[in-house]
Queue: 2 jobs
Job 1
Amino acid sequence: VHRAIVLHATCVLVGLSQPGCRESNVYADGELEHNFDRPQWVDAENDVAPYEGTDADVIEAQANFVHGLDVQQKIIWRTCTPNDGVCHNRKEYPDLRTPTSFLAAFDAPCNIQPGEFSSVYDGCERPGDVVTFRGQGSEGAGIELAYLVRVAGEPPENDDESLQPDADTPGLHVYLAQPLKGDRDYFWGNMRLSRRAQTGETITEIEYARIDTLWYALDDGRHLYGIVYNYLADDIAALAAQGVIEGDANRNGIFGAKTGKNVAMLAPGRPEDSYLIARMRGQIHGENLPGSRMPLANQPLSVPEMLALFCLVEGFGAKDRESGLMARIDYNACSYAKNPGALNLLGEGVTWSSRVSKIFEFNCGGCHTGDEPAAGLELVQGDVYSGLLGASQQKPELRLIAPSDPKNSYLYLKLIGDASILGNPMPFNPLTGTGRLSEAELNDVLTWITNGAVEDQ
Ligand code: HEC
């Protein structure tokens, strides 16, 4: 009987010093659940001296965002809410719509959104599940799973040494952190997947799946290809639905958990190391984050809002937990209150002159410049900016760019291939008839329009 998913009670208790056990941080089981409970609200002692300086942004932040609950309700909630929200029902962002789940995001590992591997940040990768094989002469210690790929399609017709599978062959592709040692290129074997969880000092290893099939060792044993016979298909689908933890989820060769640079969703004391904040800025420590920026659906946070969030995270401590986010934010002691302007999200460079004009020059210049620019639209020479604020030729009732209103900006609708456009989505690719900017570029254009489509700052 073939059952790929067996939840075994064979929990093997192993110590950290055991060979094959890594000494990096093993998170306790990690997803943040949506939690409707309200925290216990307790009156916190008002032992915080108010800011008495003159910076208008700090004064505004102090007046509007007194404590963490204000930050959650007035900033985070707004960011998460419209269009069902960017932080709703997604694995990438925890659901932050309640104070309790916002509180739980402090010190929680950042999550990984399944499916879009290229948008995973290394710092969010967890230690991968452990793969062991039985039946191949190499019964040794488990090897960390790098990632797993299911290539859809009928199983190959021949299943013997004449089969020469490659990365595209339909079946299950298991990529490993280290090569599986063994002397055979193909073998009937039993692959086992287990997960490590840490409770205090104890690491528990739980086997949760077994897959019996014919395996081929590729790439010196770093890549195992298993045939998914029809009787196995449901089990493999169930495995995918249940979710494996991949040590190199973004497939870039770096195992994020091993680098020791894991970031928390919100890191108390260290706003710059907090994934949620990094996603709003599109970068962390000057390095661009893969994936799209947040918030997507809304006006980016204002400077006082950013300041409130930074000061809350910087000063976050026991009093915030105990009071259920009712402790006063200490703007006076907050280091970011010295120069709140530096927190301006526009300071990240999404203006017409610094960024958007270059995106257009690079991607659109081939057709939209010169004596006869396509559709009469000049995107490179002269006063391009003023032209963009004018009407579209194809849909004269819309402007090409309507500041703060992406949904009514015809140029943006062309970029996302909205159903309402005439002609082709842009940038037009004559070879394929389609074309699309990268997610990062699209997001910069969106951020720019949402934020008022400023020319310069
Ligand atoms: C290979 C040539 C080509 C490239 C590259 C190209 N376009 Fe176009 N564009 C056209 C053509 C042709 C039209 C008119 C037909 C259509 O819309 O499909 C057009 C029409 C448009 C329109 C409609 C103009 C109006 O006034 O209604 C917009 C907006 C536009 N393009 C924006 C862009 C942007 C922004 C880029 C780059 C990201 C880009 N295009 C890249 C060829 C191109």
Job 2
Amino acid sequence: VVCHSRLTDAAGTDVSVDTHWRSAMMANAARDPFYLAKVTSEIERNPDLRAALEDKCSLCHMPMAYTQAKVDGVAPTMFESGFLNKDNGLNKAALDGVSCTLCHQVEDKALGTPESFSGKFLVDTSTNPPDRASYGPFPEPLVDNMRRSSGYTPQFGEQTLNSALCAACHTLYTPYLDASGSVAGEFPEQTAYLEWKHSALSSEGKSCQSCHMPEAAGAVLISASPAPPKISPREPFAQHYFVGGNAFMVGLFSANAEALELTCSQDHLDGTLQRVLTQLQANSVALSMVTTQSSGALEIGLRVENKAGHKFPTGFPSRRAWIHLTVKDGAGKVIFESGKPQADGSIVGCAADAAATEFESHFDIITTADQVQIYESVMHNSDGEVTYTLLRGAKYVKDNRILPRGFDKATAAKDFAVQGSAVEDANFVGGSDQVTYKVNTSGSSGPFEVSAELLYQSISYRFLADMLRDDTAFIQSFSGMYDMADKTPVAMAAVKQTVK
Ligand code: HEC
Ligand code: HEC
Ligand code: HEC
Ligand code: HEC
């Protein structure tokens, strides 16, 4: 790690691998207080499955410790004397989250296939240091220095250039239970890789790495030692940004860095937060508006385009994005508003936020203020009820997350298909969605000001409220941090028009 620090690109920008990785979500996957709280909530709801849950949930969030425990023939456990206990021999490896050595050791075996999904990546645990391979993107690595300083033998690994490497953890099937507590099937909880595979980006060769590990400007000397000419600068150099949309958690890390015993500096967290915001505000969506007026009515057409490489939002089912639309009359008075965010994280008019058993449908046409266009996935359990318990999620009853470019909803396999009324919405297609607002303006006088913004939230109001029904030390601790945090959603894009 020391070797790959203090690196700069041709423009003099700091591109150190360690700097970027350490403050990103993957480095902190094991310390993430929302993750830890959710694991304990699942255990509260399924106490008989405690061992299975500690095993399953540590697999991708603490992969180094998990892999080593399996080699040692020990059951991977997280609590009591498990990985989170400072006296546990694997505590440090666990807290390192998705670390350098994990990714760089994944073998090119069964990647991109169901055999390696759900965290079933393979790591060579039989070869002893310094002969154990560390795979990288460069064809002729300098071997001796790395063997001496890290105990690994660097080797070219084609897999490091492919999305299939990421697929091992970013395709997640979870077994689910019926009401009697018996396993009733498997649920595709996260399918970022399969969504990407079904989009135009995969055929165009735009890998996960190309967006999540953007190229540095020009060539980079990838190690601080040995000195040139023993090593020569490498190009392209993939920066280890690893940012998605989780600005909320990076902000919460910043505010609680000491309590969470993070190993990165505030500066590094600030850098990651800026990169997440750029990802959300520059690289994710485009919003456009067309308005038409007739007597007593205003018709507003909004188009949301997805620029990411998978559904937007992708990943964990607590994410949501929605349209906040406001129409004001000539005097500046609000005559129509849909999707207004509240300080507590809820949305005015959202059925799920008002009642635990409900959820907001997908809309093609919106005519009343209590209809809100929310792009999200909502789980049903095996009894056809809305659930937020991961082990009870049997299927998505709603999945209108905006499709990536080139994604044909008619041919998508059921594990990552569109669900709910977006299926029949003719303008909910690969790459975009269009929604029409019909606003009654009779009795009001213009000019009307129409403004729309797309807002993003990492943890939806109901997902959180549901978890807070349980009472564990980890939930209390997270809840305290959540209460103090700024819950303002991220404004991703905005458009405005004045209509005479
Ligand atoms: C999530 C997986 C992952 C983690 C964690 C990770 N890497 Fe990488 N690393 C990659 C991939 C994939 C590439 C090749 C990317 C490419 O060339 O497109 C890479 C490339 C590299 C390279 C070659 C130069 C470059 O960046 O292109 C070095 C050196 C490197 N990693 C070191 C590290 C170190 C040190 C850490 C920990 C601080 C680390 N990596 C953490 C996946 C990872
Ligand atoms: C060993 C399993 C594993 C592998 C391999 C892996 N990831 Fe991750 N990744 C995770 C986990 C776990 C998280 C969630 C951490 C959290 O939120 O607590 C995550 C989170 C992320 C995020 C979300 C960050 C945010 O700001 O929301 C991105 C982006 C990401 N990974 C990209 C990648 C890419 C690209 C690759 C392949 C080069 C990759 N991952 C490989 C386990 C993995
Ligand atoms: C064309 C660029 C692009 C490609 C290709 C791409 N992503 Fe992303 N990814 C994004 C953007 C932009 C975001 C932020 C918006 C969002 O959260 O969906 C993102 C977000 C994410 C997140 C975080 C979601 C969250 O909850 O915060 C994960 C995880 C992720 N990507 C994984 C992957 C994986 C795995 C692949 C490859 C199979 C991949 N991405 C390919 C652009 C891309
Ligand atoms: C196959 C790998 C894998 C396994 C197994 C896994 N996770 Fe995750 N988890 C991920 C990835 C990848 C993400 C990040 C997705 C994103 O950012 O949208 C994530 C994100 C999360 C988050 C959101 C964190 C945040 O900060 O927003 C929670 C909570 C979570 N996982 C809980 C769990 C629980 C509970 C279990 C056990 C039942 C579990 N995970 C098992 C891969 C995994």
